[in-house]
Amino acid sequence: MNSAAMASSQVSAGNALELRGITKRFGALSAISDVTLSVRPGERRAVLGSNGAGKTTLFNCITGDFLPTAGFIRFFGEDVTVFPPHERIRRGLRRTYQISSLFTGLSVLDNVYLACRGVSRNRFSLLRPHRDDALMHAASALIDAVHLTADRDRIVGELAYGQQRQLEIALALSGAPRFILFDEPAAGLSPTERRDLVAILTSLPSHIGYIIIEHDMDVALRVVESVTMMHNGRIFKEGRPEEIEDDPEVQELYLGGGHG
Fold first, then answer.
1. What is the reported pTM?
2. Number of folded domains in the chain?
3. In this structure, are 260 and 187 located in the same domain?
4. pLDDT at position 253
5. SS (H, E, C) the chain
6. Residue 5: phi, psi to the nearest 5?
7. 132-136 contact pairs (CB < 8 A, 24+)
8. Residue 71 CA to its chain's centroid (Å)
9. Are 59 and 38 within one domain?
């Protein structure tokens, strides 16, 4: 390995997530262009921007749902640019989606247990779990972490929408993730549910970093330490939450001339 390659490897090894020059084109349309971004282990970052800014396309490239047209992605120092989604999941990457994808006919506990089982070594076992099953204990702990303890035996289809979003966070936490992508977790939530969401996100273990896409600035800026603003598929601004909130260009472009 030459000196330049060694230096690049050392820089990458210090980041949880590293994107360099990520571009995604659909025919003649560039959904994102030359996005370069680094996130440290345990860092919480918001990626904000108006509809069409390229946020979801960026998430899809990170998770492997889309392969980038150009650029590379490293996850904890490993090049995962062309890895399929399940290989990125095996390495500790998780994601929630804008549209819920839950087993609505099963209980809260069953949903979380299946998520834990799905990323375990014994995921293909046909044996029924017993009361002392380690994965069952793990599922119960995750349910507690997202404030659904009283609802653990309820059928998911009976839950309020906000509770279903809380359940999605529990699923994303299954199997000891190293990094999570949250795609608009506050969408459709009531003010009370949004306060609960903030409490859940701020109480996550400190070693779990995440990126959150969120239209609700009041939620996003309270749960992160850094912000990346996107516009027309490119990075527009980066900074701390208070810097982004007070930035005149951000206020004019995204907040209608003011915020707060």
1. 0.86
2. 2
3. yes
4. 76
5. CCHHHHHHHHHHHCCCEEEEEEEEEECCEEEEEEEEEEECCCCEEEEECCCCCCHHHHHHHHHCCCCCCEEEEEECCEECCCCCHHHHHHCCEEECCCCCCCCCCCEHHHHHHHHHHHCCCCCCCCCCCCCCCHHHHHHHHHHHHCCCHHHCCCEHHHCCHHHHHHHHHHHHCCCCCCEEEEECCCCCCCHHHHHHHHHHHHCCCCCCEEEEECCCHHHHCCCCCEEEEEECCEEEEEECHHHHHHCHHHHHHHCCCCCC
6. -65, -40
7. 136/109
8. 21
9. yes
How many whole angstroms separate alpha carbon 120 and alpha carbon 5?
A: 35
Query: Residue with structure tokens 């972490």?
Result: 145
Q: Exposed, middle or buried by CB within 10 Å (0-12, 13-18, 19+), for 189?
A: buried
- Report the alpha-carbon distance of residue 51 to residue 143 in Å, rounded: 32
Strands 93-95 and 179-183, how do they pair? Answer: parallel
Q: Are 226 and 43 in contact (CB under 8 A)?
A: yes
Burial class (CB in 10 A: 0-12, 13-18, 19+), 226: middle
Domain boundary among 176, 193, 211: 176
Give the position of tokens 């990170």. 62
Nearest CA-CA partner of 10 in 99, 102, 74, 100: 74
Mean pLDDT in each 10-residue stretch from start to end of the chain (260 residues)? 39 82 96 97 95 94 97 98 95 88 93 85 53 83 96 96 94 94 94 95 96 92 96 95 91 60
> Token match 């529990």: residue?
170
**153 plus 194 within the same structural domain:** no
- Dist CA 179 CA 24 (whole Å): 22
Cβ-count burial of 132 within 10 angstroms (0-12 exposed, 13-18 middle, 19+ buried)? exposed
d(Cα 1, Cα 17) in Å, to the nearest integer? 22
